[in-house]
Amino acid sequence: MQSRRTFLLSSAGAALSLPFWPAHSDAAAAASGAGKHFLMIGGTSFVGPAFVEEAKRRGAKITLFNRGKTNPGLFPELEKIHGDRNADVATLTSLFAGRSFDAVIDTSGYYPRQIRNMAAALKGRAKSYVFVSSVSAYKDMTKPLAEDSELATLSDPTVEKITEGTYGGLKVLCEQAAQAAFPGAALIVRPGYIVGPRDPTDRFTSWPLRVRRGGEMLAPGTASDPVQIIDVRDLGDWMVTQAIAGQSGVFNLVGPEKKLSMGELLETCKRVTKSDARFVWISADKLKQAGVLDHVPIWVPPSDIGMAQVSHARAIKTGLTFRPLATTIADTLAWWQTLPAERQAKLRAGLSAEQEATALKLR
Ligand SMILES: NC(=O)c1ccc[n+]([C@@H]2O[C@H](COP(=O)([O-])OP(=O)(O)OC[C@H]3O[C@@H](n4cnc5c(N)ncnc54)[C@H](OP(=O)(O)O)[C@@H]3O)[C@@H](O)[C@H]2O)c1
Question: What is the per-residue pLDDT for 2?
Fold first, then answer.
């Protein structure tokens, strides 16, 4: 089970086909990537494909660097360099010898050493470095967050273990490594919960699935509690625009544009799935009493409310746009239906029927 503060992905495989990236109506307005060449460190799980699909659509050239383990059949048309990003600098340098790129897109960095080594190997070969961090980089989740909010720190900056206590602080050190290696040319992307087709965590996906099942169901907190999510394709679109423009700086990436409440999220799931679900709102205190507080995905309890109050003003000013929530829900469910039955049988997030029943007894 993923913890709430750890916006961390497993790179678990997902369906290979990508039918969920329809051409945009604003295609003509989007900046062209023709003539641009991006090196993607990763690219084949969730955020990576969203970037790749949009960059391809805009005419950019993309080279993927990864081990060839996650979804190896994806993007057969793209150039690939296979290798382990944990290799030493000399090995990495030899892999990129004689090449140059407009930007490096790093979706798979978790330890500062990985960014330092990759950047050293690409020194002079790339104009900018795009690093995908997380809103977990912030220290204090109890109040609203903006890009200049205080950042998480680590007592041991050399730690190489991802836990709830280290993930955010490590992302901060990764950001700093990218900024040090590419002064004035590092783009730091801090997303909140990323959702949509191919999400390997099932955190968001579990809600439309539960609502679709219908009947009386647990709804966490109160209907007016704020929620923030970003469709992976909105994130990918924005990242491509910024990479083409050579943007630098630090940006939070959360959605939707207008405030969203947990009630609106569940009602939209109900509308999209034509469900008869009846929501029973269970307070944070009662969820805690039932022992399930830490297992409710996407919704955040009052103690961490800053995680649902992250400013996205800066990203919107640079062109971040949002699909309708109903589209995200419908596309996520359509993608889910394409997964093998064994995968569908093992939801990776959300409350079990027993946990839900236990909490509902406390209403
Ligand atoms: N999910 C959320 O809600 C959320 C929120 C905030 C931030 N984030 C951040 O978003 C990013 C998510 O990325 P993603 O997993 O979706 O990216 P991705 O680029 O789609 O997939 C990860 C890629 O990394 C490659 N990779 C893994 N280990 C590697 C290694 N040692 N050497 C070379 N390549 C390696 C994998 O391929 P191979 O296995 O074939 O090597 C795969 O292509 C993460 O940085 C996460 O911290 C996520």
Answer: 47
**pLDDT tens, 211-254?**
999 999 999 999 999 999 999 999 999 999 999 999 999 999 99
- Which of 63, 85, 107 is the best mutation target for the ligand 1 pocket, counting ligand atoms within 8 Å of the beta carbon and taking the most? 107
pTM over 0.90: yes
Q: Which of 4, 13, 21, 33 is nearest to 241 (CA)?
A: 33
Domains assigned to the chain = 37-197+229-257 (3.40.50.720), 206-227+258-309+325-360 (3.90.25)
Is ligand 1 within 6 A of the CB of residue 115? no
Res. 18 pLDDT band, cuts 50 70 90? low
For ligand 1, whether the C-beta of 138 sits within 6 Å is no
